[in-house]
Inverse folding.
């Protein structure tokens, strides 16, 4: 595959880590969309940079670094969303393996987190926008045996839903009374957990089995959805979106398939495959939707080199018809740093942030104005 070289220059803040910037990356914009620019910000060094969340009401993003169990506070300019300062803070010992992050609605302004190594769930106070002010752990929940290795976490009312990657379980636990819990057996390796917006059932992606666990929390019954091999394998990203649950397929060590799917309330999946040349074989790791909805149906997809070196680290915006039944267009932006094992997406109000697993980098896609262009003609991805 043809590779393009992108040049990066170093900038420095007066408070935290150096910032790394780049000009416009390769992009194939949807008709009428201004070409996006990409800026890469250097975070404090770590072998693995993972999850990220935006703290509501504050110009603050939190990023987890699993390899050294650090939580990075990233302060944004309130007007432009540009990164102005960063600092990493230890949360537990180096072997605690801080990973999952999720906003709490029961405790506004606080964040749930997982420590995969220490086998704990944490409730964290970010402690304001001052990046030098360390976050505070307000409470902890031990993962009940035989569960081990909490990875993803999400809050649904009084319940936390957690994927346990080391023991191959999905945990449902009452955060107001942790003695009330249920462990669902999963196939290797459960990654994301999400609630279907229509049926209310819970699903978990299992990246080593190419199956998706389907759970009825009322009956505590569970079953498996099989991914047809002709569509791909390795489900990772799983998220509730408009009218359905959405899943991204990563592919194999040899290739990706550029495939993602929409799971309806009956558990039936409609599969979509990207067509643009840069992403027809993409390994899709994550999927996200813009906050607060959009005047035109769309989704963000993240392609990653995390298991296959022969695919791009890339962001794709796909435009749908009104019913999310057909892809009308694709906008492709190749990240400046390739082989970074791009990891997670976070749409903000004016930009999109991406964590790069192995380069200690936070990439940000911006436009002159957050676009609401006219739909392209059906079948025209350019």
């Amino acid at each position: 595959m043809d590779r393009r070289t992108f040049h990066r220059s170093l900038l420095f803040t007066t408070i935290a880590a150096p910032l790394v910037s780049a000009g416009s990356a390769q992009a194939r914009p949807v008709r009428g969309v201004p070409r996006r620019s990409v800026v890469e910000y250097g975070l404090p060094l770590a072998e693995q940079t993972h999850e990220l969340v935006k703290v509501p009401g504050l110009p603050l993003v939190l990023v987890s670094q699993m390899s050294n169990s650090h939580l990075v506070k990233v302060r944004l300019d309130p007007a432009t969303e540009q990164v102005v300062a960063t600092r990493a803070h230890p949360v537990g010992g180096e072997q605690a393996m801080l990973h999952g992050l999720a906003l709490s609605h029961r405790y506004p302004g606080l964040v749930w987190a997982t420590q995969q190594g220490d086998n704990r769930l944490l409730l964290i106070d970010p402690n304001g926008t001052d990046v030098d002010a360390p976050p505070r752990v307000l409470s902890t929940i031990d993962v009940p045996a035989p569960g081990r290795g909490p990875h993803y976490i999400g809050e649904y009312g009084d319940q936390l839903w957690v994927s346990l990657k080391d023991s191959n379980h999905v945990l449902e636990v009452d955060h107001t009374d942790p003695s009330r819990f249920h462990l669902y057996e999963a196939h290797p390796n459960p990654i994301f957990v999400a609630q279907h917006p229509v049926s209310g059932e819970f699903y978990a992606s299992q990246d080593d089995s190419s199956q998706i666990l389907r759970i009825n929390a009322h009956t505590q019954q569970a079953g498996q959805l099989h991914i047809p091999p002709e569509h791909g394998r390795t489900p990772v990203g799983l998220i509730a979106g408009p009218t359905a649950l959405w899943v991204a397929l990563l592919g194999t060590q040899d290739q990706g398939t550029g495939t993602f799917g929409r799971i309806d309330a009956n558990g039936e999946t409609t599969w979509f495959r990207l067509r643009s040349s840069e992403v027809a074989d993409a390994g899709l790791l994550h999927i996200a939707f813009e906050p607060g909805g959009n005047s035109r149906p769309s989704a963000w997809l993240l392609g990653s080199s995390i298991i296959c070196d022969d695919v791009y680290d890339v962001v794709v915006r796909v435009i749908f018809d009104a019913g999310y039944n057909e892809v009308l267009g694709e906008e492709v932006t190749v990240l400046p740093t390739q082989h970074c094992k791009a990891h997670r997406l976070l749409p903000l109000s004016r930009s999109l942030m991406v964590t790069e697993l192995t380069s200690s980098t936070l990439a940000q896609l911006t436009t002159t104005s957050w676009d609401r262009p006219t739909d392209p003609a059906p079948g025209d991805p350019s």
Summary: The mean pLDDT is 88. The CA atoms of residues 108 and 271 lie 36 Å apart.
